[in-house]
Specification:
Length: 535
C-alpha cells in the first residue's frame, strides 16, 4: 500500500467511525418509528454493491421468471389488505415477497450481464416513445420528492412503485420477447377470473366477505375493518361484492382489463375447447361485474368490445380485399357507435348502466367537484407535490377527505403536469404501436402470437378509460405488464419482418425498416450468446 493510500485510509477511518457511531445512536433512539429513514444508508450501500459486481456471461433469468409468476398469481388471487404487519416495517404481503426479490434480481442482472442489458435496450428501442415517456415519468417521481409534505412516506411509496411499475414493465418486456410466453400468461390471467367468480358469487349470496370474521390477528393490517366490512349502495341497499380485491370497483376493473383478451380467445382461439372455455369465462366476468354493481366494469367491457370489433374488422378488410363482412362492419361502425351513444342517453336501462341514475348522482357530482378543486393546486405548483400528496392538496377541510375518484387528478397533483403528460403518452403510444404493428405487420407475420397485439392494445386503452373515474392503484402492475407485452411483441414482429424482407447481400434494406436498429442489435446479441444457458 502506498503512502498516499495509507494517508487516505487514516483520514477516512475516523469519519467512517463517527458516522457509524452517530447512525447507531440515532437508530437506537428512533427505532422502530423511523426505521425506513434509517434504512436509506443501507439501501445506498446495497445499490453500490450491485453496481460494483463483476461482469458475468449470464443473468439469473429463470429465478426471475419464477418470481414474476408468483407475483402475478398473488396479485390476482391474494387480497392486498391481508399481510403480515410488524411495527415500523412495511407490510409483508405475497406481492412484496415476490416483487422485492424480483426487483433485486433485475438490478443484479442489469449490472452483471452486458448481454442482458443489450437485449433490454434492443427490445425497448422498437418503441422509443414508450420507453422515453416511461423514463420521464419515473424521473418525475423522484424530482417531486422535495416538494412533499411527508418526504419519508412519499419516498417509501416511490420505492414500492419501482417494484410494482418499473420492475414489472422492464422484466415483462424481456420475458415476453420469447415466443409462447404471452399465450401462457394471458391464459393464466384469464383463468384467474374463475376463482374470482366463485368467491364473488358466494360473497354476494352471503352479503359479506367469506373471511370477514376469520382474519387472523397477524394478518390484520391497519384500517382492515374499513376494507372487510360489507359494502352496500346507499341509495338502493344493494350489496356490492369485491371478492379478493379491496373494493367492488377494483373487482370490476380486473374483469374489464382482461375482457379484450377473452374476446380474442373466443374469436381466434385455435381450438374449439379454448373458444368454449373463453366464452364461459366471459359470462362469468359479466356476472362478476353485476355482483360488484360497478358502472366502470360495464363501461370498460363495452369499450373493449367496440374497439376490438372495429380493429379486427379493419385488419380483416386489409387482408381480404374482396371480403364483404369486414367493410360492412367498418362503414357501419360510425352509425353503430352513434346508436350506442344515443341509447346511453335515451334508454333508461342503458343510461343507468353507463352514466348512472339517481342513485349515482352524488358520485358523479363528487367527481366534478374534485376536478374544480384540483385546478387551483395544480396552478399553484405545476411541478407536483410528491407521491401520495394529492389528497392533502385537494383543499378539503380536515377530516373531510376520503378518496380521489379521478386517477388523472392523482397523477397531476403528485407528479405535476409533466408527469401526467408522460404517463398518458406512454400508454397512448403503447396502444398506437400495438394497433399500427397489427395493421401493417401482423397479417403477414409468422409469429403465432402477433394476434395478441389488438387485445393488448385494447386492454391498455380500456385501463386509461377506467382511470378517469377510478384512482385505486392495486391493479396498476397489470397495466405495466400489458405494456411490456406490447413492447416485446412489437419488437418481435417488426424484427422478424425486417429480417424477412432484407436482401441477403446488403444491410441497407434492413436499416430502412422501423425496427431495424433493434433488429440488428438483438440479432447480434442472440448470436453472440446463443450458447449461453441462464442459471
Amino acid at each position: 500500500m502506498t503512502w498516499s493510500r495509507r494517508l487516505l485510509w487514516l483520514a477516512f477511518a475516523p469519519v467512517l467511525f463517527s458516522f457509524c457511531f452517530v447512525y447507531g445512536f440515532f437508530f437506537a433512539l428512533t427505532a422502530p418509528y423511523l426505521i425506513v429513514q434509517c434504512a436509506l444508508p443501507i439501501l445506498v450501500l446495497i445499490l453500490l454493491s450491485i453496481w460494483a459486481l463483476p461482469d458475468e456471461r449470464v443473468a439469473p433469468t429463470r429465478l426471475m421468471q419464477a418470481l414474476f409468476a408468483g407475483y402475478l398469481i398473488s396479485l390476482c388471487l391474494w387480497p392486498i389488505y391481508l399481510a403480515v404487519s410488524l411495527p415500523g416495517l412495511p407490510w409483508l404481503s405475497p406481492q412484496r415477497l415476490f416483487g422485492v426479490p424480483l426487483g433485486f434480481c433485475l438490478l443484479v442482472s442489469l449490472s452483471i450481464s452486458r448481454r442482458f442489458r443489450r437485449q433490454i435496450g434492443a427490445i425497448l428501442s422498437a418503441t422509443p416513445i414508450v420507453w422515453k415517456a416511461f423514463a420521464i415519468f419515473t424521473v418525475m417521481q423522484f424530482i417531486t420528492l422535495p416538494f412533499s409534505g411527508g418526504i419519508a412516506a412519499s419516498l417509501n411509496r416511490v420505492l414500492i412503485q419501482q417494484i410494482n411499475w418499473t420492475t414489472m414493465f422492464i422484466f415483462s418486456a424481456y420475458l415476453f420477447s420469447k415466443p409462447g410466453r404471452i399465450t401462457r400468461y394471458t391464459g393464466l390471467l384469464c383463468a384467474a377470473i374463475v376463482p374470482a367468480f366463485v368467491v364473488g358469487s358466494l360473497e354476494y349470496q352471503n352479503q359479506a366477505l367469506l373471511w370477514a370474521e376469520h382474519v387472523p390477528s397477524f394478518l390484520a393490517v391497519e384500517n382492515i375493518e374499513q376494507v372487510i366490512k360489507s359494502d352496500f349502495r346507499t341509495a338502493t341497499g344493494e350489496y356490492r361484492a369485491k371478492a379478493m380485491f379491496s373494493t367492488p370497483l377494483g373487482f370490476a376493473e380486473f374483469i374489464a382489463i382482461l375482457s379484450p383478451i377473452l374476446f380474442y380467445y373466443v374469436h381466434l382461439g385455435r381450438k374449439i375447447s379454448t373458444k368454449i372455455a373463453a366464452a364461459a369465462i366471459v359470462v362469468m366476468g359479466y356476472a362478476c361485474i353485476e355482483y360488484s354493481g360497478s358502472r366502470l366494469g360495464l363501461v370498460g367491457m363495452g369499450w373493449s368490445f367496440l374497439l376490438y370489433v372495429f380493429m379486427q374488422a379493419f385488419i380483416r378488410w386489409r387482408r381480404l380485399r374482396h371480403d364483404l363482412i369486414a367493410p360492412a362492419i367498418f362503414y357501419s361502425y360510425p352509425a353503430f357507435f352513434l346508436a350506442v351513444l344515443g341509447a346511453s342517453f335515451t334508454v333508461s336501462s342503458v343510461h343507468n348502466a353507463v352514466w348512472g341514475g339517481g342513485e349515482h348522482a352524488a358520485s358523479n357530482q363528487a367527481r366534478m367537484n374534485q376536478i374544480s378543486m384540483a385546478i387551483p393546486s395544480v396552478l399553484k405548483n405545476p411541478i407536483g407535490y410528491g407521491a401520495g400528496e394529492s389528497g392533502p392538496q385537494m383543499g378539503y377541510a380536515p377530516g373531510q377527505f376520503v378518496t380521489i375518484d379521478n386517477y388523472l387528478i392523482n397523477l397531476v397533483l403528485d407528479y405535476g403536469v409533466i408527469g401526467l403528460a408522460a404517463y398518458l403518452t406512454m400508454f397512448i403510444a403503447a396502444s398506437s404501436y400495438a394497433f399500427r404493428t397489427a395493421v401493417f405487420y401482423g397479417p403477414n407475420s409468422r409469429d403465432l402470437e402477433a394476434g395478441f397485439l389488438i387485445p393488448l392494445g385494447v386492454a391498455v386503452s380500456a385501463f386509461i378509460v377506467i382511470k378517469v373515474v377510478f384512482s385505486q392503484q392495486d391493479l396498476d402492475p397489470l397495466l405495466f405488464v400489458a405494456t411490456g407485452m406490447v413492447v416485446a411483441l412489437v419488437e418481435r414482429v417488426r424484427r422478424a419482418q425486417a429480417i424477412e424482407t432484407a436482401p441477403a447481400h446488403t444491410s441497407t434494406a434492413v436499416t430502412s425498416r422501423p425496427a431495424s436498429r433493434s433488429a440488428e442489435v438483438y440479432a447480434r446479441v442472440i448470436q453472440r450468446g446463443s450458447n449461453d444457458k441462464p442459471h
